[in-house]
Each structure stands twice: as C-alpha cells, then as structure tokens.
Specification:
Blueprint (H helix, E strand, L loop, with lengths): L27 H25 L11 E3 L7 E3 L11 E6 L11 E10 L5 E4 H4 L3 E4 L7 H6 L8 E6 L19 E10 L2
Antiparallel strand pairs: 1-2, 3-7, 4-5, 4-6, 4-8, 7-8
Family: Belongs to the FKBP-type PPIase family.
Pfam families: FKBP_C
Catalytic activity: [protein]-peptidylproline (omega=180) = [protein]-peptidylproline (omega=0)
C-alpha cells in the first residue's frame, strides 16, 4: 500500500436505493406501517451507535508500542476508548538530527495498523526499504504531511490519523471507509 495523498478518478458512484411501499394497492395502514418500521430502524441504529461508544477518546498514552528505533514495532490499541477525532502525534524516541519542515526530503520506515480491526496493513520494515518523500508536497496523506513536521532524524513518532486526514470514505483496497490509521514512523534521514 502506498501512502498516496491524491486519488485519480473515482470509478464508482454510490446509488440511492428506494423502497416501494408495497404491491397490489395502497392503504393508510401499509404506509403507516412502513413509516413506523423505518423510524424504529433509525432509532435502533442510533442506539447501537451510542452503545458502541466507550465514553472517551483515546490518547497517545493509551497506545502501547514495543520496539526501538530501527526495529519493526509491535502496536497494541486499547479496547476501552474511542479513536481520536483529531491528529495525535507523540515522539516515542527523540533523535538528535535535523528537524523536518515542509519542503524537506524525508526518508521513513513505518508500520501501519487500522483502528477497526487492529491488524497490520503495511510496513516498510517488512520490505527492508524506507519510504522517500518530500514533506508537505502532497505525496502522502495529509496526516503524514502535518504529523511529521518537526520530527528529528533518528526519532520514532506515533501518529494517530483520523479519517479526514487519511483516506476518508475512499480508502485503498483492504481498508474500510472512515478508518482511523495508527502509524509508528522512524525518521531515517531528514534533508538531502
């Protein structure tokens, strides 16, 4: 999977589905029954959404990351909180090299897990080859362009990226729409 920030033409367009009130004549009872069923379904869906909430958003401190700079991390997400709605960054290891700013060349190793199923979806560590990019140039998702500003060479940073700064409702294959992304990134090289 590539962390591409821009997608070409979206080939599929969702179509609205309309339900027929019934066949073989209409009556006020059938219309009333359909409306009541739709309202009950809507209420049930709203209750399920509320019940699914854990009551608080997770923070960087709730995420467990094992492994040091240069080694593939193991990331564990908690079950007792909701994914954050804002971008969260936390330096897990602070390097001593130059800080990355918009326009800088940056080479990173990373591991990505998806919030909804806590599965590793991609890792440059597994490929043994860092990802080169120009920070802030739109080559990667917005969460990376924003979340990696200020990272120092030699640092390991946790990024928790909400859907609006990730892939939103149009993710690549293997990912659910509206997915929150969790990355651990190592800044291998900052600058030319």
């Amino acid at each position: 999977m590539r962390l591409v920030g821009k997608v070409g033409v979206i080939g599929a367009v969702a179509a609205a589905t309309m339900l027929a009130a019934g066949c073989g004549g209409s009556s006020d009872n059938k219309a009333s029954s359909t409306t009541t069923t739709a309202a009950a379904t809507s209420t049930t869906a709203a209750a399920a959404t509320t019940a699914a909430s854990k009551g608080r958003e997770c923070t960087a401190e709730d995420i467990s990351v094992d492994g040091g700079f240069g080694t593939a991390p193991t990331i564990k997400l908690p079950a007792d909180c909701d994914p954050p709605k804002e971008l969260i960054t936390k330096d897990l290891v602070v390097g001593s090299g130059p800080e990355a700013k918009a326009g800088d060349k940056l080479s990173t190793n990373y591991t990505l897990i998806t919030w909804s199923n806590q599965k590793k979806l991609d890792s440059s560590f597994d490929r043994g080859k860092p990802l080169p990019l120009t920070l802030g140039a739109g080559q990667v998702i917005k969460g990376w362009d924003q979340g990696l500003v200020g990272i120092q060479e030699g640092s390991r940073r946790l990024l928790i990226i909400p859907p609006a700064l990730g892939y939103g409702d149009h993710p690549p294959s293997g990912m659910k729409p509206g997915e929150t992304l969790v990355f651990v990134t190592d800044a291998v090289k900052v600058g030319n």
